[in-house]
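Need residues for this backbone.
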């Protein structure tokens, strides 16, 4: 502090004072988060993770740290008047709450987007230094606050894992049918499943010999060498089922509102598959079945279909994990428990989820899938046969400790039998609500589908 106080007055004094004030109550970080959130992908995820990290860091530094470690702030008369803040804080000096929030936000943003982190980090460092420069903190206060902030940012990964940049692992398969100019390729297009233009013109330009059909014509494909699909996950599931039953490879062209399966496989657009189709290279992946219905992503009973619908409605604005938390809270508030027998054991449950392959995170709403090659189902259900089960479930979710909660069961199995007692209920697969039933037999179909992938 003494070396900082000895600095001569400069134009930086006014700028650092303004910067320090701008970071009061984290307003500066809220503004930057709003700017980042305007862009989809890592920038938006970084903004949301940054705000979550600020919440943890601010509570730790201001509510806990300052109460446990009372410390007087530097004397105001050590500084020249132009450098002093007009309104000096009166709380404990240790640790610095501004530094904690700055470090938390910058670190969290960098975890999701290193590019954005490079821009935010100098601003955060300047905010932290401004607290010493303006005479309201000792250097050790700032160092401790920064440590708290970095820790809070990394702790968010316990509840909200970082997004995967690599596609899910799959079975190697290098001898798919080569289709020059799309000869023998039949592409099922659902122009109503996305928010963009009809992809048919690009498909016919890329594969002039391909045949483009509608979803209704999927059962009349006698001469197809491969099936293609341009649509969302519901359409993809229907074509994947037809391809698996005919033992035909599939060409995946994501064009729907939500393309979770394509993302996990590692396909982002038509350009990803064009060369693979010409070369005849790709992979094989697992599919799953419930009764006679195939699914590529998930199936669910109870309140889970409603949770998926609400989550998908909110996730573009809030990101997957926050949207999943909000959706789970809303659904469990009004859900009615179901009595069912799961592999011979009777349970009362709020909802049941079955995924095609293991999803992550394990402890809460699944948002990513690292593997499509282990022949297992991801089974999760929330029990309703314990006192205060919903409250206990929420507490476990907030603490990131659901894997240790008696209210929550997570299994990875090759097959599963579920018998629902009472009136028949609907099952949702890949976002589509299916017909009602009482008995549901789930099984993984290992390496059931070949997909062109470079």
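Answer:
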């Amino acid at each position: 502090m003494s070396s900082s106080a000895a600095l001569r007055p400069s134009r930086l004094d006014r700028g650092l004072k303004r910067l320090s004030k701008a970071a009061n109550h984290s307003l500066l970080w809220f503004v930057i988060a709003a700017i980042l959130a305007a862009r989809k992908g890592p920038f938006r995820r970084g903004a949301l993770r940054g705000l979550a990290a600020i919440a943890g860091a601010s509570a730790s530094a201001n509510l806990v740290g300052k109460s446990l470690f009372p410390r007087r702030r530097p004397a105001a008369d050590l500084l020249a008047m132009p450098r002093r803040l007009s309104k000096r804080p009166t709380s404990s000096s240790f640790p610095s709450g501004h530094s904690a929030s700055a470090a938390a936000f910058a670190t969290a943003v960098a975890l999701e987007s290193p590019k954005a982190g490079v821009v935010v980090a100098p601003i955060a460092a300047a905010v932290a230094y401004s607290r010493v420069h303006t005479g309201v903190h000792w250097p050790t206060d700032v160092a401790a606050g920064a440590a708290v902030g970095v820790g809070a940012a990394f702790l968010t990964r316990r509840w909200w894992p970082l997004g995967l940049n690599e596609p899910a692992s799959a079975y190697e398969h290098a001898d798919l049918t080569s289709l020059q100019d799309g000869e023998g390729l039949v592409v099922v297009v659902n122009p109503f499943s996305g928010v963009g233009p009809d992809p048919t013109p690009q498909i016919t330009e890329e594969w002039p010999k391909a045949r483009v059909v509608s979803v209704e014509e999927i059962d009349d494909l006698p001469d197809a060498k491969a099936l293609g699909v341009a649509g969302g996950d519901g359409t993809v599931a229907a074509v994947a089922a037809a391809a698996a039953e005919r033992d035909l490879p599939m060409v995946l062209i994501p064009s729907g509102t939500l393309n979770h399966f394509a993302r996990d496989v590692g396909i982002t657009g038509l350009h990803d598959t064009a060369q693979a189709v010409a070369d005849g290279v790709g992979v094989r992946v697992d599919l799953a079945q419930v009764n006679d219905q195939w699914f590529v992503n998930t199936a669910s009973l109870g309140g889970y279909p409603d949770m998926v619908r609400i989550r998908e409605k909110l996730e573009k604005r809030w990101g997957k994990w926050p949207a999943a938390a909000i959706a789970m809270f809303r659904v469990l508030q009004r859900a009615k428990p179901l009595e069912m027998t799961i592999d011979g054991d009777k349970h009362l449950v709020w909802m049941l989820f079955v995924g095609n392959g293991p999803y992550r995170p394990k402890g809460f709403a699944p948002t990513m899938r690292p593997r499509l090659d282990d022949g297992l189902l991801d089974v999760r259900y929330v029990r309703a046969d314990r006192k205060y089960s919903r409250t206990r479930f929420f507490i476990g979710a907030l603490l990131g400790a659901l894997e240790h909660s008696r209210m929550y069961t997570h299994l990875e199995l090759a097959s599963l039998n579920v018998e629902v007692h009472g009136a028949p209920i609907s099952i949702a697969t890949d976002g589509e609500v299916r017909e009602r039933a009482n008995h549901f037999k789930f099984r993984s179909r290992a390496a059931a589908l070949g997909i062109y992938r470079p």
